[in-house]
Amino acid sequence: LKGVGPTLAKRLSRLGIESVADLLFWLPTRYEDRTHIVPIGSLRPGMRAAVEGTIELAEVVFRGRRSLLVRLSDGTGFLTLRFFHFSGAQQAQLVRGARLRCFGEVRRGKHGPEIVHPEYKDAGAPDKQAVEGALTPIYPVTEGVQQGRFRNLTAQALAAVGDGELADWLPAEIQRELKLPGLREALQFVHRPPPDARLAELEAGRHPAQRRLAFEELLAQQLSLRRL
């Protein structure tokens, strides 16, 4: 897959991921809805939300510790983005007049709501993580493998595997009887659920796509035990 060199391959191997199939079966533990933009004026402490606005002010301050403060406005209110660790390239990007889309957990700041180290991108740029129009999966990862990079890899893996390239061992009649989707469909759904998917159902693991994968795993265990 594009972007996987020796260093990243070694880090992925710590998770037991050494093939595209391994990657596809490394499932998200939860999801976040980043498809709906929340007005800044509606933000409350504790919310995890996606916002979009224009940078009104960006400055480096030294109040206890050095940090980059960015004030974002969308016409309904102001939000402070706080970065304790930042590079010169970030400073050059986060300038007055730039439009950002960002996501993170809102907390109560000295001058109103703020998000510390949000995930962000140019509001007009394409989403390189390939999750536009889908709920955002959150994966169990290891040190040195960021969520954004992992989502990019799963997007590549889904695109690389055609309908006939994954062996689906469940007979069609069993799938129909249990009302379960095919393997390719199930994997596509759990990695990129559509925005109208019910988060509560996903979090509880009750969606048919999740049940399909769980059924296959339990069946494999049962067959292995019977063979032994």
Task: Set out the fold topology.
Elements: H1 6-13, H2 20-24, E1 30-32, E2 48-63, E3 65-73, E4 78-83, H3 88-93, E5 99-109, E6 112-116, E7 119-122, E8 136-138, H4 147-160, H5 172-178, H6 183-191, H7 199-203, H8 208-227
Helix pairs in contact: 6-8
Give the total of beta strands: 8
Tally the helices: what do you get? 8
Which percent bin holds the helix content? 25-40%
**N-to-C SSE string, H for helix and E for strand:** HHEEEEHEEEEHHHHH
Rg is: 21 Å
Largest sheet: 5 strands, mixed, barrel
Overall mean pLDDT stands at 89
**Helix-strand category:** alpha+beta
Q: Which ranges are low-confidence, i.e. pLDDT below 50, for 5 or more consecutive residues?
A: none
Kindly report the spatial arrangement of strands forming the biggest sheet: 2-3-4-6-5
Can you characterise this structure?
The protein has helices at residues 6-13, 20-24, 88-93, 147-160, 172-178, 183-191, 199-203, 208-227; strands spanning 30-32, 48-63, 65-73, 78-83, 99-109, 112-116, 119-122, 136-138. It has 228 residues and is of the alpha+beta class. It has a 5-stranded mixed beta barrel. Strands 1-8 form a two-stranded antiparallel ribbon. Helix 6 (183-191) crosses helix 8 (208-227). It is elongated. The model has no long low-confidence stretch (mean pLDDT 89).
